[in-house]
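Workshop exercise sheet. Pairs work together: one partner reads the sequence aloud, the other fills in the structure field after running the prediction. Swap roles for the next sheet.
Pair: D.N. / O.F.
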Amino acid sequence: TAKDEIIAMFPKVKNHVFAFWPGIYNRHQIQEKDIFENYHLQHLNDHFFIYIGTVEKRKNIGFVINAFLKLKGHKKAENYKLVIAGRPGYGYDEFVTLANASSFGKDIIFPGYVSESDSILLYKKATAFVFPSKYEGFGSNQTECMQYHLPIILSDIPTNREISRDYGLYFKLNDEDELVAKMYMLIDKQYDYKKMNQLADKYLKDFDWNVIVKNMLEVLKKEK
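Structure field:
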């Protein structure tokens, strides 16, 4: 997707633009813990959706909060929470105010920055990751979700389609009802874990650093 955008702006370099995805980082060397370090997360049960990243307007966080508030109207969602983890960015205070002004403010948790250990635990315990970006260059959260077989619900934009392919559950940008419907699929046990986990394992092979480096070296040799 990024390659196509560059060529569209600079067509003369068409034959000299090559795209390589970032690979997957091995987190196995990180000492995992059974409980969360962040005290905001210590009483979290296994019924929650997550977003991890900088908490700012360009990440479309307000959209996720509004969708979650609609989701809470379903009886099956009454025990579910939304965790929005990451460093505060532009618009952060507005998101906190929006959450606290609702009748479900206690179910929307802003733990701030989380450690690697807590991040892994969130990936392992969450119901799904909500990835609502209007624009992305890559979106490493997508491959991290595949690593932990965590369902991902994401905006239907070209980059997300490129990376997650059939592993993602997509919603149209600015369509809160469609996002709510995708979140409800997980709550209502309509998600085929076996099929999706097989897709994740298949796609992850494309993000092996050895494969990526080999492809890059082949291109560099030709260009030389």
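Discussion prompt: Strands lie at 48-52, 81-85, 108-112, 128-131, 152-155, 169-171. What would you look at next?
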